[in-house]
Amino acid sequence: ALPDAAAEAQVRADDRAHVFHSWSAQGLIDPLPVAAGEGSTFWDYEGNAYLDFSSQLVNLNLGHQHPDLVASIQQQAGRLATIQPAIASDVRGELARLIAEVAPDGFEKVFFTNGGAEANEYAVRMARQVTGRRKVLSMYRSYHGSTSTAISLTGDPRRWANDPSDIGAVRFFGPYLYRSPFHSETLEQESERALAHLEQTILLEGPSTIAAIIIETVVGTNGVLVPPPGYLQGVRELCDRFGILYIADEVMVGFGRLGEWFGIDAFGARPDLITFAKGVNSGYVPLGGVVISDRVAEFFDRTAFPGGLTYSGHPLACAAGVATFEVFRRDGILERVRDLGERIVEPTLRGWVESHPSVGEVRGRGLFWAVELVRDKETREPLVPFNAAGADAAPMGAFAAAAKKAGVWPFVHFNRTHIAPPLVISEDDLVRGLSVIDEALTVADAYTTS
Ligand code: PLP
């Protein structure tokens, strides 16, 4: 029944009058009313279709209205819609077992939360309990969520107005060869120097005061920063040396985004705690959690864990999680992510570095890539300044508008666009969407100075 101007007007009016939105000055926004979604596409009320290249905040790994996920929630709602967390529930236990089976050896237990920020909150709380220490180290270029400890650990500017809600947060520079804080020229140098910097940070902060280091396995919103060879191994070695726990934040990259169950599998990393959310059930019902190594879990065998949530392991959310495992295995999702990433996304994006004056670097893995836009390839001056807003951000706004007009909804953050479609996107749609982005980049090219 599209287009439907009356319905659109009602949705917009209710939203503008009553919905208080995240991260926004409420009087300056005009959220798009969305009427429907199916697979990798969603529609507005005018009947315009958008191919979703951002998976709704890098969340919707199995796409809109996946029949298996929808059915699993419907069936669970018909059986037992909710049950409190102190009870043993079949779907909660089944999902925890499935997660433990794909986690590294030595991870058997899962604490469920309602999302990613809470997962990080609880991982940090566990680390503080186990070590008896308070500080937590995190990267400047990071996002860990918006609750009080999670936003304090976050490095990106969303922290600024909230700082310091958790006084134990200490930040450091992670590896980022394209804009190396360490003047490195090779990945090997970047890895070594970033580790030396982290070691210095630990020594100067006082190793005996540090409970944990939290790292997004591939830094997500802040740049799709892939760790250089040896970096995450080096973090493990520093943690072992100083009795610090290593928390892998897999909220964005877990459950298939990199073509692995967990991103750590791609890099041979060995954390003590793994946090997840989003892709575990594509956000159909809010769910996140912490996968707990035996070493941490054993601490709580005789000591009570001081924390809990009414909705921990909600049956509807867990049912969608169990269905996610079935779909991933039946449809070979991890294999197709690796295949599409290597065969289509990577070569196409590498070509853009040659063909577009505005494309300074591309990087990523699986179906998770960043295209970093610059004014000048020599100086690497970003196409828009760090944390640009309003008129300063106009070139990125123009790029995004061109992509949307041509039917692709892009992910844009500062001077980057990320390629993060649902993992079920058809090959045809992927190729079509990439060609729309390719064309929209000519809009960005017009702002270059070289
Ligand atoms: N950690 C990472 C790496 C994320 O990307 C996000 C959200 O984008 C979060 C944590 C916070 O998750 P949530 O929004 O579910 O609280």
TrEMBL record:
InterPro entries from the UniProt entry: Aminotrans_3, Aminotrans_3_PPA_site, PyrdxlP-dep_Trfase, PyrdxlP-dep_Trfase_major, PyrdxlP-dep_Trfase_small
Organism of origin: Microbacterium istanbulense
Domain of life of the source: Bacteria
Record protein name field: Aspartate aminotransferase family protein
PROSITE patterns per UniProt: AA_TRANSFER_CLASS_3
GO molecular function, one term: transaminase activity
Pfam families named in the record: Aminotran_3
Keyword list, A-Z: Aminotransferase, Pyridoxal phosphate, Transferase
Annotated family: Belongs to the class-III pyridoxal-phosphate-dependent aminotransferase family.
Coiled coil: none
